[in-house]
Structure formats: C-alpha cells, structure tokens
Amino acid sequence: MERKKALEIVKEQLTEHRYVHTLGVMETAIALAERYGADRKKAEIAAIFHDYAKFRPKEEMRRIVIQQKMDETLLHYGTELLHAPVGAYLVEHEVGITNQEILSAITNHTTGAVDMPLLDQIIFLADYIEPGRNFPGVDEVRALAQEDLEVACIAALRNTVTFLMKQQQLIFPATIETYNHLQRKRKNR
Ligand SMILES: Nc1ncnc2c1ncn2[C@@H]1O[C@H](COP(=O)(O)OP(=O)(O)O)[C@@H](O)[C@H]1O
C-alpha cells in the first residue's frame, strides 16, 4: 500500500496529536530498518498502523479479544494494552493488510513479546523513542538505538517496568518476560 493512502486511512482513526506521534514512529522505524537491515516498506506500514485501534471503544476491544480468542489475561491489566492486538486484527480485517510480520509488529508494540523478530523490535522501539516522546531516560534509549537494537529494547523495557512500578500499576508479565529473554541473550553473546 502507498504511504499516502495508508496515512489517509489511519488519520481518520486518530486525534491530531496521535497522528503526529504516528508520523514520528514512521520516520523512526524507517531509519531503524535501514540501520538494522529490516524491510523498509514493512516498517513503514507497521508504524503507520500501529495505533490504528487506539481510540476504539473499550467494549468493542474487549469483545474482539474474547471473540477472536486472544490471550484473555490481557483483560486483567486495564484497557490500555488492548489496542495493540486488537489493532492488528482490525488492520487485517478492515484495511486488508495480511502480512504476518506487519501484524505481529502491531500486536507486540506495547508490551513486547518473547522472541520478537527484528521488525517487532523496530516498531516497539520506534514507538518508544520517536521525536515527540520526552519522558525521563528517552535520550539514553535513543543513543542506544544507534548502537544496538536489543540493548535499546532492554532499556526501554526496563524503563517501562520501572515507571509502572513507581505508579503502582499492574504489569502485564510479557513485558518482564521479554526483558528477561533479551537480557539472557545479551549475557550469552
Ligand atoms: N507490561 C505492561 N503492563 C501494563 N501496562 C503497560 C505495559 N507495557 C506498557 N504499558 C502501558 O501501556 C500504555 C500504552 O503504551 P504504548 O502502546 O507504548 O503507547 P502508544 O500506543 O500510545 O504509543 C503506556 O501507558 C504504558 O506504560
């Protein structure tokens, strides 16, 4: 799909602020794809659609998780996580994107997942470091992203878990499992 067409489709689903974030994720994901040898076009399309379901009604998202037999434990960690896997489902069924690598990257962009392929890591990280993000620690992760994709993902996962802990929020375990997995891989390098 052409970039212009994809952006037109997603713009209708998002607020202006979220659309600007999406453009930042797109630029960042393309740069990371070039840096780490991933498919530029798949990175572009996955980034454009990563937040497709962000503003869908919570009830619709819950219903899709149940009807499509997605991991129902997601429902016990608040509604913020649902837009990622539900987004992948809607992008497939409403927009007609069937590429599994793109759909996987959209599915895993918020929580991460153990054994994330290259494209998943790129979208996960691009969402975290795009130019519009300005939370504490993001510059360190931006610098790491130039050097080592997995080390940068580890830092982003660590920051997210630390942030959620400080806020006394629930933590969906896949994020910690992803952190452990990448950290173990790194130590064994
Ligand atoms: N493992 C987790 N458990 C619970 N909440 C999480 C987890 N991982 C990320 N979040 C939260 O989900 C929210 C959405 O994050 P994210 O998908 O990165 O943003 P966006 O989709 O808006 O670009 C954030 O508030 C983040 O802290």
Return the CATH topology of one domain. Hypothetical protein af1432
Radius of gyration: 16 Å
Class of secondary structure makeup: mainly alpha
User: Whole-number average pLDDT?
Assistant: 97
Keywords: Hydrolase, Iron, Metal-binding, Nucleotide-binding
Pfam family, one: HD
Protein name: bis(5'-nucleosyl)-tetraphosphatase (symmetrical)
Catalytic activity: P(1),P(4)-bis(5'-adenosyl) tetraphosphate + H2O = 2 ADP + 2 H(+)
Structure notes:
The chain has 189 residues and is mainly alpha-helical. It has a domain at 3-134: Hypothetical protein af1432 (Orthogonal Bundle), CATH 1.10.3210. The protein is 67% helix and 0% strand. It contains ten helices and no strands. Helix 2 (16-36) runs antiparallel to helix 3 (40-49), helix 3 crosses helix 7 and helix 5 packs antiparallel against helix 6. The longest helix has 21 residues, at 16-36. The structure holds adenosine-5'-diphosphate (ADP). Adenosine-5'-diphosphate is lined by residues 51, 54, 77, 80-81, 109-111, 127, 160, 164, 170-172, 175.
Gist of the model:
Residues 18-132 form the HD domain. By secondary structure, this protein is mostly helical.
